[in-house]
Specification:
By secondary structure, this protein is of the alpha/beta class. Helices cover 44% and strands 16% of the residues. 26% of the residues are buried.
Amino acid sequence: MAADLRPGIRVAFGLGGLGLVAAGLLLAFREAGDLTSLGALLVGVLVVVAAATGRLPREVGLQRVTFGADDHDAEAYREALYEAVRQTLPGVDPPSRDTDWHPRRPTYWVDELQLRVVVRWASDRSVHFDVSTVESDIARAGPGVAVLLVTNVDEIDDLQAAVRSHVGERAAVVRWRSTDDNATLQSAARGLNTPNGPSP
């Protein structure tokens, strides 16, 4: 997995990486220490490459370092959304975790409605999700299953198109950020025309 870098961060990484490369070369010429100069060169090159590609691995070296969604904020969003789904669908049992549920890629199942809820959260609301990262979750919906993709990002048109291409009309994408969006969430869920669903 990798995290997208913002333009400003890419510039900073590029300059910092070039600085490390220059420092490594300077140390090498001065014979100040082979390991130090080699380390500066390697790190500098990696940082420059990350700046050029705009992608940063989530795991670097031997220790796990997270460069993306803050786990606490992601958990808070997930829990708040779960409660919102319960409130907007009062006539059915609470959603249960789907078989492929993961803390960073939560999915839920509403049995009475044959509805799969896919949740995608981003720490930066302006980020554009790579559609391929959600297509596998959408594709896991079986025949006759409706899909509701819920996210907090600004741009949802591409996600809407991807969901519809896999599931058809029984799919929707909702931008949910707080209880102020509960009405939109409820309308989308009821508009999927799922079996035994509540009447609009």
